[in-house]
Amino acid sequence: MNDYGVPHGIDVLRVFCGPDGRHGNALGVVRDGRDHPDEASRQRLTRQLGFSETVFVDDPERGRVDIHTPGLRLPFAGHPLVGAAWLLDLEVLELSVGEVFARQDGEFTWITARPEWVPPRTLQQYASAAEVEALPGPPPGEGWLYVWAWEDEAAGRVRARAFPRRGEESGIVEDEATGAAALLLSAQLGRALNITQGRGSQILTAPAPGGTVEVGGRVLMAARGGHGRGTRTAPPAFAVEP
Fold it and tell me: Looking at residue 239, what is its pLDDT?
């Protein structure tokens, strides 16, 4: 839904925008999950919206949220939680796997999560950032693939792309910005990272106490399907491309 003609009660955010406010991964947020009370209705709406993930807010005060892709429900995902934390302006989000702590730091919204909450991902290192950028599409194979290379190892700068490889029925060939995979990579390398993914999205990570990892980025409002209680109402700071 590139024109963001979303129904009432649904916001569209861009999560992990670049420094210029462009790019980022589109996220649908259903502000009142009661409008779609069961998994079947949530899947129908998620497929209709066509974003890589859609969040259903089941309790805006407690931060209880439910995450869906076009095809399955996720126990955890990075960019939906960063987006929801920004929109709901909460310090804690509740998931079935546990509590996700959130904070605001200037233009960045951060969440803290455990690597073991992330669904399986294959992290594949390439020799150069140019090789990552030159990929015409998903490399052969099955299963979720995150390809990456150092742009500047000393500075922790990474170039990455993500391919869900869920089959044509998902409609998502490449994921523009993937917080969960960035979290796994940061945990694997044991260091903070500044990741450029997709067309130019930016994801920041940092190891945190107790084996957790922080993931952060910029969030902007792209479209609003009517206003609701408990959400940010400020207009976007600058234009966001569709």
Answer: 29
